[in-house]
Amino acid sequence: MGGLRQGRRGLRVRTGTSHWKCLLCALLRPLDRPRVPLTADSSPLLSLLRKETKTLKMRVWIVFLLCLAGHAMAAPTEEEPIVEELVTEEPVVEETEVGVNPVQIEIGEFDEAIDATEEEEEEVTTENPCLNYNCKKGKVCEVDESNTPMCVCQDPSTCPTAEGEFEHVCGSDNKTFDTACHFFATKCSLEGTKKGHKLHLDYIGSCKYIEPCMDTELGEFPLRMRDWLKNVLVTLYERDEDNNLLNEKQKLRVKKIFENEKRLQAGAHSLDLLAHDFEKNYNMYIFPVHWQFGQLDQHPVDGYLTHTELSPLRAPLIPMEHCTTRFFEQCDADNDKYIGLEEWAACFGIKEQDVDNDLIV
Fold first, then answer.
1. Which residue ranges make up each domain of the chain?
2. How far apart are CA 328 and CA 332, in angstroms?
């Protein structure tokens, strides 16, 4: 009945239509004989006919059963394509320890990711030319087309808004600025002009009327100023537990003043007492005067004080001491807009032989 083939699903029987036709022909072939007419003498023939009829019925049943079996086993004339089943491996789920969050990134990988990010940020940061490029007040750093840093005037509108009136400052043009940032940005925009050259930060706070300083008052100002500088240094020495306020050389010099039993304690003293103490304990005032000069001489450190460098000291004093402006103007003995150490010391009554650059430590 055709050929046998070993397939994917076992033994398969090829049962095409032509195979069944041949099978029927083979079963019915004994009937294809010449028809003989029936006669009286035909009883043996009749017996034979009856016998063959039974045989035929048997063959028909066999054919019928074979048809049923063939129909169940038959396949299309074209062979079924063999489809290979994809074998997927089941993911291996690791058991987590008790108390461990199953939704968790490997710590090592996470750290490496952080490190890589930090390295990238460091690379970007180091590539910024403005990172360590300092500009004076009123200017900000920008880079040109060749990635070279340069200082340009800051736009006053980019300055932070003042949080209160305590941030206001008064310019020498008697105009109030919201913050020091607004003042210096404005002054920078006026560079090269006569107005910009004359504009300075006068004092902290909104502009107000300052009484004129009389000659007698001007003579009293250095008495209070010297005593104030001495008391500031002693206070810093007392509070400097972490060595952040004074360096070691400064602390050694202030220690002598602090431990001196003759030192005049801070307080509201009369001008006569202040003048007497300066004459009696003159040596206690030499270092405080030098120290204050060194604190102000910062931009740049060149041994001279400009109007801008004086601002941190004079700006808070003017509202309280109306002779401040006139005092510092008088210190500039040669009117060159700079105050040298000798001029500074002379304003506070320090003798010329006691002026020493080595005391600025």
1. 1-29, 139-204, 215-359
2. 7
